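Q: I'm teaching a short session on how sequence maps to structure, and I want students to see two examples side by side rather than one. Could you give me a first protein with its sequence written out and its structure tokens following it? Keep the formatting plain so it prints cleanly on a handout.
A: Of course. Example one:
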Amino acid sequence: MSKLTFFFLASILLFFGCKSAQVTKKITKHLEADFYDSQFTGLLVYDPTSNDTIINYNAIKYFTPASNTKIFTLYTALQLLPEKIPAFKYNIDKDTITLLGTGDPTFLHPFFQDSTALKMAQNFKKVNLILGNLSDEKYGPGWAWEDYDTYFSPERSSFPMYGNVVTINNKPTLQSIPKVLEKQIQYSEIRHNRNFNTNHFYYNLKNDKAVEIPMVIDSLLIAELWNAILPGKVFITHHSPQKMNFIAYSIPSDSLYKRMMHESDNFLAEQILILSSSTLSDTLSTSKIRNLILENHLKDLKQKPRWVDGSGLSRYNLFTPTSFVQVLTKLYTNVPRTRLFNLFPVGGEFGTLKKWYASNPKPYIYAKSGTLGNNYSLSGYLITNSGKTLIFSFMNNHFTKPTVEVKSNMQSILELLRDNY
């Protein structure tokens, strides 16, 4: 190497090194401003190409992640689930089919409307449906009990139907999906959408759009729903002496992951963890699958998270920005870029980020947000104007100011990275 070439390369490295240091200094100054004094904030920004850490601010501290937890759920699914979702396990004995749930949330779901189970079951005179193979409680630990009647908090189950919600609208007259529950809906202006422990629903005539209300899932309801579509053919049991030998598959897996990530769908996230556990055993357990992932696939995490659910509804979850960046780096390394970025919300364009982090002129943020009261986080991928891809996790807890102000400050910092790195 000639001296001229050496000095040229050294000058370039010095220039970019100084520029990177300037960006780091500007962002650190932002984070040390009075705005952040009364909240807890962490930020880690990593360049996977150069293996450089650009910003490390409280990155090893634990935070309540909210729906950033879904990044770990996505990682789990991509490790364990096949290209199509396992809809159910089954055996056939002459004119009888026995079905065992895997947790697939797409069966007759308002969005996916998968009918794999119905199409197969209608070919038999008798359908045995085994319930009771889910070891988890219907609600996750640390979920807010008062959310029982809200669309974002359906119960978990082994063989979901209709997304485990009743969808109600009043155009032109009162209608529901599933229709069999229509008789249990009444007009009312009371504050709750459903009785606490029973499937009695309330619809406010002031609503101008459909509402989704979680159902109370038990064997009586499941029998009623199935017999409404296959009258007299379906029988519920809680145990089977035999192992299921076959698996039926429903929709492409990526379509499920994309919906979970783009809409931050809590029900899909919970059921995806249950689905993942179906690859290990007929007994479904999200705790077993979380332990498997943490103890094997993610045993190299620098800070082991407290991971208690698939959706992030629980405030018991505790993760560090470093852990998110590590998992995002694994995804970036092992999943084709086009496929990976298609699964994440896109700033200014799609999903939960449609109104934030707008493109200029192309999208620069592909990331998952996470929101709970007084908490907002964002973790994912940032494309700089120079064409570099950065991996980041930006976590904010315990603020009392409006969330919109926190987002605005975050956006300013992310734009600094975009424009100057």
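Q: Perfect. Now a second example for contrast.
A: Example two:
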Amino acid sequence: MNKYFQGKIYKNTLKRFLDIILSLILLILFSPLCLITAILIKLDSKGPIFADVPERIGENGKKFKMYKFRTMIINAHYLLRTDPKFKKLFEEYKKSSYKLKNDPRITKIGKFLRKHSIDEIPQLINVLKGEMSLVGPRAYYPDELEDQLNKYPKTKKLINKVLSVKPGITGLWQVSGRSEINFDKRIEIDSKYVDDLSLFNDLKIIFKTPFVMISGKGAV
């Protein structure tokens, strides 16, 4: 049986089973940390515990609401795109593949949460709902994909391939440099993940993820 059919069988059967079992276990294990995080967010700044972020693009282009702990000021995404005082910041944001190293919108506790990917834990709910997988490509914003496609038109085929699977909480690009990688290289890495989709590769990424979270390497 060739690699393509092995990957297809894994994607359509075992991968979803593992997602459900492992995400339930992780939610139980992380529940004390989630409670502490929620308290710290409320003490640190005004606003909800979860981030109010735009929808992301999931499998086959279907949009979904991603759950994340709030690490920024209220309405941070809306303000970046509409508030005149953030105009230069928004231009920098787009030029740097939709990542900012020194983002003034991030709260004090938010900086720590983002560095160690603690803000990503609520995405386990998205996994249980079937909108995401534990391991997969990055979940992009619609305007991000559109702008990056204009900037890197040769990535169209790679984008289509990446959107053929569910996005992941962690993935190959996350354990290969995270935000230090520009979009064209990131989408290439995610495309490679889709080509090599297998239980072995997913487990390898899962085992690498805790070390990336603890070190905070490449996070913004």
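Q: What should students look for in example two?
A: Point them to this: The longest strand covers residues 133-135. Also worth mentioning: Residues 3 and 181 are 27 Å apart (CA to CA).
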